[in-house]
Specification:
single chain, alpha/beta, Cobalt-precorrin-4 Transmethylase, domain 1, Methyltransferase, Cobalt-precorrin-4 Transmethylase, Domain 2, 8 helices, 10 strands, elongated, binds S-adenosyl-L-homocysteine, uroporphyrin-III C-methyltransferase activity, S-adenosyl-L-methionine, Uropor_MeTrfase_CS
Length: 255
């Protein structure tokens, strides 16, 4: 039977992919791979599977969304099973919803295999829970990418006092921080940015909102990164402070 899957590959670390995802990858005839997917996950593909990169990083030209769906349909109509592999979770800022709609419109059922989204895994990788009873009653996943009419209402988001987890926010970080401060968010609100989370090259910056954009620039962080703004980030700040004071305490000079 011909099958179609929309699969989340998780945030980077291969071990954070689900068993269901590895099983589906092992069945697919064709695998269409997005940006941000760790190529190591392809170890679960069949040796004879055909692998197509459709992401825009790594020197590959980006394939327009319609082109991706057209390719999937072509393979499916030819009787080949197709796995569409996306970073994180396929339904969180991954355009998975659009691809599902397009496949449904063509009369094709697609199985969704959830993945661990970067917005949860990246903060967790440096000890930040996205909710915590002392800090936040909820969490908002938001894109920092939009500009103009699609710009999120940062003032309204600030007013919720919930954890803000911002995807695709690095290029516009200055504007976002400025908008949150202008909306009355406190300058001492804890913040973190985590680049390439759960991968060997993971790096991060921790700071207060007032100095955050400078701290991120100083650390030289870029995409892909998750930005976390809110009291929960104090857990990582406190840990960093404790680590640096225990460094001092254990150094012979400090005695
Ligand atoms: N579907 C994906 C998100 C795709 S949008 C998911 O659920 O995770 C792409 C954005 O995700 C990036 O710009 C970045 O903000 C974030 N991202 C993805 N992988 C990441 C990683 N390993 N570390 C930090 N951020 C990541």
């Amino acid at each position: 039977m011909t099958r179609a899957w929309l699969i989340g590959a998780g945030p980077g670390d291969v071990e954070l992919m689900t068993l269901k995802a590895t099983r589906a990858l092992g069945q697919a005839d064709v695998i269409l791979v997005d940006d941000l997917v760790n190529p190591d996950v392809l170890q679960f593909a069949r040796a004879d599977a055909s692998i197509v990169y459709v992401g825009k990083r790594g020197g590959h030209p980006s394939t327009p969304q319609e082109g991706i769906v057209a390719q999937m349909l072509e393979h499916l109509h030819a009787g080949r099973s197709v796995a569409r592999l996306k970073g994180g979770d396929p339904f969180v800022f991954g355009r998975g919803g659009e691809e599902q709609q397009a496949l449904h419109a063509a009369g094709i059922e697609v199985e969704i295999i959830s993945g661990i989204t970067a917005g949860i895994a990246a903060p967790a990788a440096i000890g930040i829970p996205v909710t915590h009873r002392d800090h936040a009653q909820g969490v908002i996943f938001v894109t920092g990418h939009g500009a103009g009419s699609s710009e999120p209402d940062w003032g309204a988001l600030a007013a919720t006092h919930m954890t803000l987890v911002i995807y695709m926010g690095m290029r516009r970080l200055n504007d976002i921080v400025g908008a949150l401060l202008a909306a009355g968010m406190r300058a001492d609100t804890p913040c973190a940015a985590i680049e390439s989370a759960t991968r060997p090259e993971q790096r991060h910056a921790l700071s207060r909102l007032g100095e955050f954009a400078d701290a991120v620039a100083r650390a030289g962080l870029g995409s892909p990164a998750i930005v976390v703004i809110g009291g929960v980030a104090s857990l990582a700040l406190a840990r960093a402070a404790a680590a640096s004071s225990s460094d001092t305490a254990s150094s012979p000079d400090a005695k």
